[in-house]
Design brief:
Blueprint: E1 6-9, H1 17-29, E2 35-38, E3 63-67, H2 70-82, E4 87-93, H3 101-108, E5 112-115, H4 118-122, E6 129-130, H5 146-153, E7 159-164, H6 173-183, E8 190-195, H7 203-215, E9 222-224, H8 230-239, E10 242-245, H9 255-261, E11 266-270, H10 275-278, E12 285-289, H11 293-304, H12 307-324, H13 327-343
Parallel strand pairs: 1-2, 1-3, 3-4, 4-5, 5-6, 7-8, 7-10, 8-9, 10-11, 11-12
Helix pairs in contact: 1-13, 5-8, 6-11
Length: about 350
């Protein structure tokens, strides 16, 4: 059995961006280094070690504890400082904002730091290695028959626009609804699908959006599909003609990369998350001013007005991801950080 050199905790039951990151990376990283996940909410095929076993690991072997949340940094500190586990503590930050005093204290106790963007690194106040996320270009790929795929996953025909993620103001869902109400009457074959759950806090927000759509007479063209299985989301990406990420705030934001890897061009908010680094404006999609319905509506109209250009942009998006955003490159870069921590005196 491969010796455990790295532990990647996931201390959250519900699906989140961090959980997705762990699930994406570990199958690739386990070919490079002895790595295990720990915690709830992970698929059974992910290499795993139970939480209760951690204090009983041999102290003779140094290991990396790779945290991505405050709770995971805290647990790493307890394991290292109180239970005397032989751990080197690593934290990855995607937040592009000033951290709380408690988070800053936790960060100060880490042995190494990774930031997913230069902007995130600037808020850490300590040296960090910038490693941007990548995507699995074998899992996310274009399809040769969108109509057949749409039928298999229950999606409408026409020019299909997607917006995937939690239903909340942070994600800018209301901006796309307002832009669509203006633009869709000029493009009668266009349809929009939203996937993602509205937590109890934002159920009223989604209800207001649905009422606004109904008042505009577009309920048959804007569809709120709720939370869907991950395997189905992967299929949905390649069934799209255009993807929109109108977020107001984002840590990194993988959805544009997943869409582009699927051969789908993207409209996204400029200066939010890593969108500006992911999208080559005018080549793989469009960047628009965040929180600006007018700019979003204009970009939607322009891209929907030229189906041939839309297809060409999708091809360029796929090539762009293959060249610059492969998950294998991300995994290798992180493993190099692991090795440096393991080998450090």
């Amino acid at each position: 059995m491969q010796e455990i050199e790295v532990i990647a905790p996931n201390l959250k039951h519900s699906l989140s961006g961090v959980t997705t990151t762990v699930v994406r990376l570990l199958p690739i990283q386990q070919k490079m280094i002895g790595i295990r996940a720990t915690g709830p909410g992970l698929p059974s095929d992910i290499p795993h070690i139970r939480l209760w076993k951690l204090p009983f690991l041999s102290r003779k072997i140094r290991r990396v504890w790779h945290a991505r949340r405050n709770t995971e940094m805290l647990m790493g500190l307890v394991l290292k400082s109180i239970l005397r586990c032989n751990f080197r503590l690593l934290f990855t930050s995607a937040a592009q904002r000033d951290h709380s005093r408690f988070t800053k204290w936790l960060i100060s106790r880490m042995d190494g730091l990774i930031a997913t963007t230069p902007q995130a690194a600037s808020f850490l106040k300590y040296p960090a290695t910038v490693i941007m996320h990548g995507v699995n270009t074998e899992l996310f790929h274009p399809t040769s028959d969108k109509q057949l795929l749409r039928a298999s996953v229950g999606l409408p025909n026409g020019t299909l626009i997607g917006c995937f993620g939690r239903i909340r103001p942070q994600k800018g869902v209301d901006l796309l609804v307002d832009a669509a109400i203006e633009v869709l009457p000029r493009h009668p074959d266009a349809q929009i699908v939203f996937t993602g759950r509205a937590t109890k806090e934002f159920e009223g927000f989604q209800k207001e959006l649905e009422e606004k759509v109904a008042a505009a007479g577009l309920s048959d063209r804007l569809h709120f599909l709720g939370e869907r299985p991950w395997e189905e989301i992967v299929e949905m990406y390649r069934a799209l003609d255009l993807f929109v990420a109108p977020a107001r705030h984002e840590g990194f934001g993988l959805t544009p990369l997943e869409a582009m890897a699927s051969g789908v061009p993207v409209i996204a908010s400029d200066g939010v998350g890593a969108f500006s680094a992911q999208i080559k404006n005018g080549v793989t999609g469009r960047l628009v001013e965040k929180d600006n319905v007018r700019a979003l509506a204009d970009a939607l109209h322009d891209m929907l007005s030229d189906p041939e250009k839309l297809s060409e942009t999708g091809n360029a998006a796929r090539a762009h991801v293959e060249q610059y955003f492969r998950i294998e490159d991300e995994a290798q870069a992180i493993v190099r950080v692991y090795r440096a921590l393991l080998d450090a005196p």
